[in-house]
Automatic annotation (TrEMBL):
Lineage: Bacteria, Pseudomonadati, Pseudomonadota, Alphaproteobacteria, Sphingomonadales
Keywords, sorted A to Z: Kinase, Membrane, Phosphoprotein, Transferase, Transmembrane, Transmembrane helix, Two-component regulatory system
Main location class: membrane
Entry EC number(s): 2.7.13.3
Organism: Novosphingobium kunmingense
Protein name, per record: histidine kinase
TM segment ranges: 12-35, 168-191
Amino acid sequence: MIAQTTSLRLRLVGTLGAFFLVSMVALYFAALAYARLAADKSYDRLLSGSALSIAETISITDGQVAVDIPFASLDMLSAAPDDRVFYRVVGPDQRTITGYSDLPKLPATRRGSVDVGNAGQFFDAPYRGEQVRFVSLGRLIAQPGMKGFVFVQVGQTRRARDGLARELVFGSLAPILLLGIFAVAIIWIGIDRALRPLGRLGAELAERQPQDLNPVETAVPLEVVPVVQAINGFMRRLRENVAALRTFIADAAHQIRTPLAAIQAQAQLAEGGDVEEVRASLAAVSRNAAKLTRLVNQMLSDATIQHRSEVRVFKEFDLVATIRQSLREAVPLTDDSDVRFTTSLRTAPLIGDRLMMGEVVKNLIQNALTHGRGDHSEVLIELTEANGEYRLAVMDRGPGIPPSDRDQAFERFARGNSGQPGAGLGLAIVRQAVESHNGDVNLEGRPGGGLVVVITLPGKGA
């Protein structure tokens, strides 16, 4: 089952939508602050004019402060018919001369300064259940027996101000909101058009026959090119693996068919022959069965090496111990053999696959014993270390391999001209295993006759 995540369309639209929503919220609060400031400036002029109109009627009569509230001073605030208006005039003795005596006072942080100009000091304060905008204006009185400030305070509820602020906010944000919705719709359509090549790519791959591993040639956007290149690279590797598998199967079938045909022929000869002919046929059957057994074992070894070289689960192991164990497993399979292992190393730590390297050693030993010369096969295995690398040499006294044929010897089912039985897989297995460990394998002639297989492997610290 294919693991699925949120679609690209939803991711892109969701990201853009979230950004748009956050931007709209930020714009709303910014517009609201600006609209309230603009509304306050507009209505504060009327509020300041009302207070100034009242302040101009302040007079001193018989040693008392007198105020004649003009109708025009409150009428100018009628532009906001839904708002309530409050006023108060306070004498130098802090007593209310006229108006609402319980109006909120100027905030304590601003009482130290008195505005004797025409603007006044503005502040907001709750009063009788509503938020009210106030202006406080001071006038200095200097008469015999009376000196001080008379304060005129006029307040107006914020209904009209807040209504104007809302109109300004929604009037400015509504077009932006509509434009944003239109932009999201356009983006949705654009994303749909941008993703169509992926749909065509998927349709092309779905309609292909299983054996069609040719490269994808569908035109795709620049951003999708790496994906198509990765798919083409994967299909190229798969095509090469399938071709190699078919070749291997064909070669293996040919190699298996030959000893099987020989066994069948010898069995048929033994049916009507005398005792000597039966013995000869049984010996031939035994030889072909051994050849077939070796071929099957090497094919299994080759499959194991291929799998483990792809998986590459490498761990640290001791190459010296692995070689000794491989000797114990491989040498008893052949009688009358002389296989010696020499090394000055007590341990040889290596990062790799112990099983693969064990197969390498066993295949080299079996090759050396199979193709060795004479009744007594001499095989020498030598492990040395130099410049952070291990050098493993397996030497025999066989006919060797001519320099012109050494490259071909590493191919599957390639056999020399020694006339000895063999499947032709041993060196191919060795090369694949060694190369998966970033090593190198070479064939050299041995002084005095024979072949030397030299393997170079990077040490643990390399």
